[in-house]
Specification:
Elements lengths: L6 H8 L17 E7 L2 E7 L5 H18 L5 E6 L17 E9 L6 H14 L4 E5 L7 H4 L18 E3 L2 E5 L14 H14 L5 E7 L6 H9 L4 E6 L3 H16 L4 E6 L4 E2 L6 E2 L6 H9 L3 E4 L4 H8 L4 H4 L4 H15 L6
Parallel strand pairs: 2-3, 4-8, 4-9, 5-7, 5-8, 9-10, 10-13
Antiparallel strand pairs: 1-2, 6-7, 11-12
Helix pairs in contact: 3-11, 5-6, 7-8
């Protein structure tokens, strides 16, 4: 009797199959719907990610080759599944039910204050009288539980698979951090990350809301591609500091969103400058005009320049975004201006 090929090896092989025209594999793009053993072989279900038959036929042929010829799977049942209720016109993305606008906050590298921007943007929108949700999609490094001071509070079940978000500072929150010990690492492979993100998007009882702000992990990996593949985004904000190394990585993030056909709203230059509390002198300690150069290169605009104030970090560490804790603070006013600009850029038919 032939020995069963391990399912882990099947996933690893599928991770070598690139989607036509992309440098990204079909696992990262969420095209592999299901893999399960079947009579010594496997059943593999692919999501129909293109309306062009030749594209899907070529993709199916590539999958058959890597699994049967290269890996040695003896029997393979390959199904291409068209899910009418979930597929959009061209990309497979759909509107998130009950949510008017979905905006992603992204960065090319860590440490630029992306999560702080996402949290304060969400609070600023809520203070404008809008209903706002905030999804902490940074599966490996969730921070919203700390930044909103949720403590040991956990989301309540709303049914067999559904969860109610936690509400703080007028914002509905969902985060992997609500389910982890504060210092516990998340050691997951890509498919598990993608599955968790899909579950948070679709199984959270967000209700009716004007905005869902999605705080993405840094970089251009599984979470970004899953989000872009699963739901229709109304735009992405790219957060960077002025220094060249941050701008370089942020440019990569911007190009990724363009490649997956997500509108680029603009750039947020965080830690843009420091104002001396004693003399009032402005010091651009991380450099000057980095975001401006990026905006010119990418054909977009700098939507906000967030100053560097110790109070921003101090407030977040205490579990209150500064826009909520000190609404008259200059940093809070910068976030309010950002929120107004984001709202003005949303499609009228959203």
């Amino acid at each position: 009797m032939a020995r069963q090929v391990p399912i882990e090896a099947v996933f690893e092989a599928l991770g070598q199959v690139k989607y036509p025209g992309f440098s990204t594999d079909i696992l990262a793009l969420g095209i592999v719907e299901e893999v399960k053993p079947n009579n010594g072989g496997f059943i593999v279900v692919l999501r129909q990610a293109s309306e062009r038959d030749e594209v899907m036929q070529g993709l199916a042929a590539s999958v058959r080759k890597v699994l049967t010829e290269d890996l040695g799977v003896k029997t393979l049942d390959l199904e291409v599944r068209r899910v009418e209720a979930e597929l959009g016109e061209k990309t497979g993305r759909v509107r998130l039910p009950g949510t008017k606008y979905v905006v992603a906050v992204a960065s090319g590298k860590g440490g630029v204050g992306k999560s702080t921007v996402a949290a304060n943007l969400a609070v600023a929108l809520a203070q404008m009288g809008l209903k706002v949700g905030l999804l902490d999609a940074d599966i490996y490094g969730p921070s919203m539980a700390l930044m909103f001071g949720t403590g040991d509070e956990r989301p309540k079940a709303g049914g067999p698979q559904n969860l109610y978000p936690i509400e703080k500072c007028g914002v509905r929150l969902m985060s992997m951090g609500f389910f982890l010990d504060e210092r516990a690492p998340v050691i997951w492979r890509g498919p598990m990350v993608m599955g968790a993100l899909r579950q948070f998007l679709k199984d959270t009882l967000w209700g009716t809301q004007d905005f869902l702000i999605v705080d993405l992990p840094p970089g251009t990996g599984d979470a970004q591609l899953t989000l872009a593949q699963q739901i229709a985004l109304d735009g992405a904000l790219i957060v960077t500091t002025p220094q060249d190394v941050s701008v370089l990585d942020a440019t990569r993030a911007a190009k990724m969103f363009r490649q997956v056909h997500c509108p680029l709203l603009g750039i947020v230059e965080n830690m843009s400058f420091f104002v001396c509390p004693d003399c009032g002198e402005r010091d651009e300690i991380f450099g000057r005009a980095g975001a401006d150069r990026m905006a010119v290169d990418e054909g977009t605009a700098v939507l906000a320049r967030i100053p560097l104030y110790p109070e921003i970090c101090e407030s977040a560490d205490k579990g209150l975004p500064i826009t909520f804790a000190q609404p008259r603070h200059p940093a809070s006013q910068a976030y309010v201006q950002l929120a107004r600009r984001v709202l003005s850029m949303m499609p009228a038919d959203g």
